[in-house]
From TrEMBL:
PANTHER family, alphabetized: ACYL-MALONYL CONDENSING ENZYME-RELATED, MOBA-LIKE NTP TRANSFERASE DOMAIN-CONTAINING PROTEIN
Disordered: region residues: 297-363, 382-405
Entry keywords, A to Z: Membrane, Transmembrane, Transmembrane helix
Name of this protein: EamA family transporter
Annotated Low complexity bias: 331-345
GO cellular component assignments: membrane
Top-level taxon of origin: Bacteria
SUPFAM superfamilies hit by this protein: Multidrug resistance efflux transporter EmrE
UniProt family annotation: Belongs to the EamA transporter family.
């Protein structure tokens, strides 16, 4: 898989939506495996991770160059452990609290935890509109799955479901902040996850106890190829250009796909509440998609010659440049209109603001400082030779290319 430099936000959203649908199909296939093969959830997860690992290893020479090696081994290990934790505890929560409660808690609290983590660690602000859309999606999730329990130990199941949601959020945030190729993230995650799950799978029962061998192998091969290798690789690729919170909400189409399969294949009844919940979920995904597209179009209104973003001044600065507000982005170059030609001579009390997604934390250089104080991480030039608009250019070494939303 190629690097995210050529991946658009629209395509990234499609990747994440496809991955979520594949996960919904995977859950349906896994349920069939439980009934027909006698395999438990841990064993099924182990086999799907091992199958995904073998497939990605087999395909590795097709898209790799000589000398390409993964970076950030520690992050890859954490990614794999998080994937194993999320999947295993999710199935345990279903056993303890029932499908409805486990699904609502894991898939419902997951986006909330992702939003909090993205704000704290990535500087991604959700905003009022985003919070409203998330509320709509969570309401749809509750309606779709129902609020009734049915498990043998609801309180324990609730606690385990929260652990699963935390694992899912950690995986999402790790891959949003990652600089590795999404292929390497998926490959490393499957390798670590397989090793971590092997002892548990052996204790549960690694081999099927009933059913035909051909059917079991075929279903496991499908699980390893589509809902695992392909879906995770696409999800991680989408996270390179789509904000973490947006990705978590878009991934809520997973239960919609699972319910649709149940209705079409198993002829399960679809209640009016479930249909309304599915509609709300799909509506929230569409609203976020349009919001991301609008944000990208705004970013692309920057002058073509600069190759950067259009950055607005939040206030009018005096001729000395005092009080100027500059917005810094992780793109290669950011431009803004500076109010005076003499800004380069006396740039005091500037405020540089990192823009990630809908906004970032202010980096105040303090009294008497300017954006040049950030020379260790950025190169800032304030230029101007005549009265009138000048140009502020911020270069961020090693920044990602492509739109940042």
């Amino acid at each position: 898989m190629g690097h995210n430099a050529i991946l658009s936000v629209g395509r990234g959203l499609c990747f994440i939506a496809f991955a979520a649908v594949a996960w919904g199909v995977g859950g349906f296939v896994a349920a069939v495996l439980y009934d027909h093969s006698g395999l438990g959830p841990v064993a099924v997860t182990f086999w799907r991770y091992l199958g995904g690992l073998l497939l990605l290893v087999a395909l590795r020479p097709l898209g790799r160059r000589d000398g390409d090696t993964p970076r950030g081994w520690g992050r890859l290990v954490l990614n794999g452990l998080g994937m194993a934790l999320y999947q295993t505890t999710y199935y345990v929560a279903i056993d303890l609290a029932g499908v409805a409660v486990a699904t609502v808690v894991v898939l419902g609290s997951g986006p909330v935890l992702v939003a909090l983590g993205a704000r704290l660690f990535l500087g991604e602000r959700l905003g009022r509109a985003g919070a409203a859309i998330m509320a709509v999606s969570l309401a749809g999730l509750v309606l779709l799955t129902g609020a009734s329990g049915g498990g043998r130990s609801p309180l324990q199941g609730l606690a385990v479901a929260l652990v699963s949601a935390a694992g899912y959020a950690a995986v999402t945030l790790l891959n949003r902040a990652a600089t590795d190729d999404p292929y390497d993230s998926a490959l490393g995650g499957f390798a670590v996850g397989s090793v971590a799950l092997l002892p548990l799978a052996l204790a549960e029962g690694l081999l099927p106890t009933r059913g035909g061998a051909g059917e079991t192998i075929g279903l496991l091969a499908f699980l390893g190829a589509v809902p695992t290798a392909l879906a995770y690789a696409l999800f991680f690729a989408g996270l390179t250009v789509v904000r973490a919170t947006t990705a978590a909400v878009v991934a809520l189409v997973e239960p919609v796909a699972a319910v649709a399969l149940g209705v079409v294949v198993l002829h399960e009844p679809l209640t009016g509440w479930s249909a309304a919940g599915a509609g709300l979920l799909l509506l929230s995904v569409l609203m976020l998609t349009f919001a991301e597209g609008r944000r990208v179009r705004q970013d692309r209104t920057a002058p073509a010659a600069t190759g950067g973003r259009l950055v607005r001044d939040d206030r009018t600065a005096p001729a000395t440049g005092a009080g100027q507000r500059v917005r810094r982005s992780r793109t290669t170059a950011v431009t803004a209109n500076a109010p005076a030609a003499t800004a380069a001579a006396s740039p005091h009390h500037h405020r540089c603001e990192e823009d990630r997604g809908a906004g970032g934390a202010d980096l105040d250089t303090g009294g008497g400082g300017d954006c040049a104080a950030l020379a260790s991480t950025t190169d800032v030039a304030l230029t101007g030779s005549a009265p009138g608009p000048a140009t502020t250019t911020v270069h961020v070494p090693g920044a990602r290319t492509g739109p940042e939303v």
